[in-house]
């Protein structure tokens, strides 16, 4: 095993990639400046010397710079390929990007390459001396400047920054056409553990929940980091990490080493999480040629191994020397001890007044740190969160507080680069949660309670911020058919796709679900709480009216983000409840809603679910959802202003039931129409400013039950009324069925 990667070799390969493009795209004058800049530095290399790796990876750059095509405009689940769309060449600015069908002009691209050259010189004349640190800064620089230009016209959807990162990790483990190990890790059981342990009522679970999901989300990175440390490999060899799954490149011939690492990690996980959370791994030794030309079969192989591993969890720990190790089945629990008031899983800390265990105390502390965190620092011991015996993590707000023993600094979102002589990496992360403002939460004050500034607001507090009825909404959403998109969807005309394409797609999704969602919450939806958001899914909780506005907007933006590709869609489930209903219960309910959205066809659909949102067990298309919301808002407003009575809305609900029977062939329209007409005559009377005509029209239109638009309204009437009644504060006389909602 090669304990020390040849960093000079790695750097040479990376600069070669850049120089290749500079030589092709830049005028002689600019090229000369670059060469001068390189030769003046302390660590200049003989760039004429070629590397064998380089011959294998570079297929020629072409003579002209090309634009970056959106990876979403390559995804297709049918034989039709979508219309190509492109990104403008520019530095990484914000997580959200809009592709355009009009590619940027050659002139724009050439000018951008001149900017890159200038920025590279600026970076190079100012970069750290330590080779490993310098390469990590270079990769960070590449993320900033090379994220919106492609590898070349052959890999037109892969940003140069992603390719450079992959080459860096390949060059760190092999030098010639040798083999390397591609390792896949999968941390399973996180969500189950998260909701199982969060049983505290009263909405105060908010204090711990984000901390818990945050810490659990770090397990995958920590496990990968632990292996890299043991192997003496740099952090960039973790080529992908999202949603608990990671890919890592390592040298060949390290099977026994990996088994030992995995066993120790799982032993730790077993002790801490009692068998709920498990690390599964799979690995394959591949040549560079194989990696580039036959990646789909590598991946199939890796997934098959993971599936097999999932069917025999913890075997490595439970079986020792071919025999069952019975000790591990017994967790030391002292029955006379009192259990933690919060999680009821671990013994209460005797020194704690509130009888809370040490884990819950740690989570309360972390919960306050998360929204202010700018850097996640990995070190060996004594951090804020201890994950494995040799991996500890600290959440840092200011650069000067970064501990001296830091080994790896993850810069969250777009905070400034710390100058600490330690390898860095940027990550998108949703770390926003609503917290008590200066002077404490008003809602709590009214209850005679005090919530300290910066403490996460409880779900009761969030409910008090809702319009109309004090309800919170749980929202769960994810990308439809993700597995298929990542394999079948990415294949080109030769039925191929490559690791850097997988990395690219994963990064774009992470950018949206972690980076963009965080921006939306920070800037606009400041009362919405993140349980988690990243990878390809999100789980948020907030005042009901803000959550429904948020989901409407995030869906519209997702459509824009993927360039309107109809194969890349989002489904969501919403559950609106009182804040005191226990989290695990509502979580199950909102998961059911999401399943409804994915499986049950909505109005006017015949077979398929997906690309829908489900609320109150009713899957509706996104367009219908927007219409339902605006109708509900309208009725809610009329009701609030006293233009129509709530008892009239109740009668309308009754008519909606009648209409449904009618659709099933029961009852008759002869009865419904006159009855409804009678009610309208009796209820819509009097004058309501200038609204009179509008209201009359809205209701009398309902009588024309043969008109398509009216049929649509009747089909969705119950949902419209259920949402409309949420706008009314009064808690009386709302009895539309489900007791959770009213
Ligand atoms: Zn506890
Ligand atoms: Zn409060």
UniProtKB/TrEMBL annotation:
Residues 470-618 form the GGDEF domain. InterPro entries: Cas10-Cmr2_palm2, Cas10/Csm1, Cas10/Csm1_subtype-III-A, Csm1_B, GGDEF_dom, Rev_trsase/Diguanyl_cyclase. One of its GO terms (biological process) is defense response to virus. GO terms for molecular function: ATP binding; endonuclease activity; exonuclease activity; transferase activity. Keywords: Antiviral defense, ATP-binding, Endonuclease, Exonuclease, Hydrolase, Nuclease, Nucleotide-binding, Transferase. It holds the Pfam family Cas10-Cmr2_palm2. It comes from the Bacteria. PROSITE patterns: GGDEF. Belongs to the CRISPR-associated Cas10/Csm1 family. This is CRISPR system single-strand-specific deoxyribonuclease Cas10/Csm1 (subtype III-A). The lineage of its organism: Bacteria, Bacillati, Bacillota, Bacilli, Bacillales.
């Amino acid at each position: 095993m090669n304990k020390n990667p040849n960093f000079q070799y790695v750097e040479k390969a990376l600069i070669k990639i850049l120089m290749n493009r500079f030589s092709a795209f830049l005028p002689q004058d600019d090229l000369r400046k670059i060469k001068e800049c390189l030769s003046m530095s302390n660590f200049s290399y003989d760039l004429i010397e070629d590397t064998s790796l380089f011959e294998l990876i570079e297929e020629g750059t072409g003579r002209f710079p090309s634009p970056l095509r959106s990876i979403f405009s390559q995804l297709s689940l049918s034989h039709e390929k979508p219309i190509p769309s492109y990104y403008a060449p520019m530095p990484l600015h914000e997580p959200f990007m809009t592709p355009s069908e009009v590619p940027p002009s050659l002139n724009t691209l050439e000018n951008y390459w001149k900017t890159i050259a200038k920025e590279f010189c600026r970076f190079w004349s100012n970069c750290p001396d330590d080779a490993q640190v310098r390469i990590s800064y270079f990769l960070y620089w590449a993320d900033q400047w090379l994220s919106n230009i492609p590898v070349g016209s052959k890999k037109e959807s892969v940003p140069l920054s992603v390719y450079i990162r992959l080459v860096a990790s390949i060059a760190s483990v092999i030098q010639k056409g040798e083999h390397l190990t591609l390792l896949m890790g999968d941390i399973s059981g996180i969500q189950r553990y998260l909701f199982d342990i969060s049983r505290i009522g009263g909405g105060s679970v908010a204090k711990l929940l984000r901390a818990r999901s945050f810490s659990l989300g770090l397990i995958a990175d920590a496990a990968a980091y632990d292996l890299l440390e043991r192997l003496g490999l740099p952090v960039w060899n973790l080529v992908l990490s999202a949603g608990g799954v990671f890919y890592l490149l390592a040298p060949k011939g390290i099977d026994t080493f990996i088994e030992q690492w995995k066993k120790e990690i799982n032993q730790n996980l077993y002790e801490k999480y009692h068998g709920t959370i498990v690390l599964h791994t799979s690995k394959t030794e591949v040549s560079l040629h194989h990696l580039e030309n036959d990646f789909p079969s590598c991946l199939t192989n890796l997934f098959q191994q993971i599936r097999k591993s999932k069917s025999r969890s913890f075997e490595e720990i439970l079986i020792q020397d071919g025999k069952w190790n019975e000790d591990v089945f017994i967790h030391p629990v002292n029955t006379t001890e009192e259990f933690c008031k919060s999680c009821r899983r671990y013994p209460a800390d005797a020194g704690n007044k509130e009888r809370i265990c040490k884990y819950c105390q740690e989570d309360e502390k972390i919960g306050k740190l998360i929204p202010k965190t700018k850097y996640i620092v990995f070190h060996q011991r004594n951090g804020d969160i201890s994950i494995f015996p040799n991996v500890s993590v600290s959440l840092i707000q200011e650069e000067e507080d970064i501990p001296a023993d830091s080994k790896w600094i993850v810069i969250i979102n777009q905070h400034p680069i710390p100058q600490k002589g330690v390898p860095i990496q940027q990550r998108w992360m949703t770390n926003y949660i609503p917290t008590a403002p200066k002077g404490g939460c008003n809602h709590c004050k009214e209850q005679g309670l005090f919530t300290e500034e910066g403490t996460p607001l409880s779900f009761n507090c969030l409910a008090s911020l809702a319009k109309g009825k004090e309800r919170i909404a749980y929202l769960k959403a994810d990308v439809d058919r993700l597995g298929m998109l990542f394999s079948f969807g990415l294949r080109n005309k030769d039925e191929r796709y490559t690791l850097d394409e997988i990395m690219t797609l994963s990064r774009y999704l992470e950018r949206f679900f972690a980076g963009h969602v965080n921006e939306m919450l920070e800037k606009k939806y400041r009362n919405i709480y993140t349980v988690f958001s990243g990878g390809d899914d999100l789980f948020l909780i907030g005042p009901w009216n803000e959550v429904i506005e948020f989901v409407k907007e995030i869906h519209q933006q997702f459509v824009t983000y993927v360039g309107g590709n109809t194969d890349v869609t989002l489904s969501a489930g919403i559950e609106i409840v009182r804040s005191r209903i226990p989290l695990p219960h509502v979580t199950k309910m909102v998961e059911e809603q999401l399943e409804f959205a994915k499986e049950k066809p909505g109005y006017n659909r015949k077979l398929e679910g997906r690309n829908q949102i489900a609320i109150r067990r009713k899957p509706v298309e996104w367009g219908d959802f927007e219409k339902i919301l605006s109708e509900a808002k309208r009725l809610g407003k009329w009701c609030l202003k006293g233009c129509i009575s709530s008892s009239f809305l109740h009668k309308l609900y009754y008519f909606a039931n009648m209409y449904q029977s009618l659709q099933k062939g029961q009852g008759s329209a002869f009865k419904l129409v006159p009855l409804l007409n009678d009610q309208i005559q009796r209820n819509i009377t009097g004058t309501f400013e200038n609204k009179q005509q509008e209201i009359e029209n809205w209701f009398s239109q309902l009588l024309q039950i043969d008109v398509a638009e009216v049929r649509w309204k009747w089909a969705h009437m119950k949902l419209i009324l259920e949402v409309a009644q949420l706008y009314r504060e009064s808690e009386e006389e709302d009895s539309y069925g489900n007791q959770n909602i009213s």
